[in-house]
Amino acid sequence: MGLEVTVGEGTARSLAETLAALEQDGLSALVAMVDGQLCSFGAPPPAVWREARLRTPAGTVTLVRRGGVIAVVVFGNADAALVDAQGRVARALAGTR
Questions:
Q1: 8 Å CB contact between 66 and 73
Q2: Which residues contact 81 (CB under 8 A, 6 or more apart)?
Q3: How confident is the model at residue 42 (pLDDT cuts 50, 70, 90)?
Q4: Full-prediction pTM beyond 0.70?
Q5: CA distance 91 to 81
Q6: Quick check: 38 and 32 in contact, CB under 8 A?
């Protein structure tokens, strides 16, 4: 079971914009996996994806497209740092602070 926050897909930023917003917010993150395929370090994130995993210092945050929303998911046993990273990713994806 995971903890999930959703962002409307129609208002969501691209992965590249989300990563840039996270960097501005002081949270380093990189795309580790897209649609089940590992990503090369420093490779530009794809424009089209169904599932992406972001590596943060606190742990992995998964983004999943589902019926008009993007779910921002962490494991149910996530510690406070990872839940904070999840919230920051969701806000960056949504374009809010």
A1: no
A2: 57, 58, 59
A3: confident
A4: yes
A5: 15
A6: yes
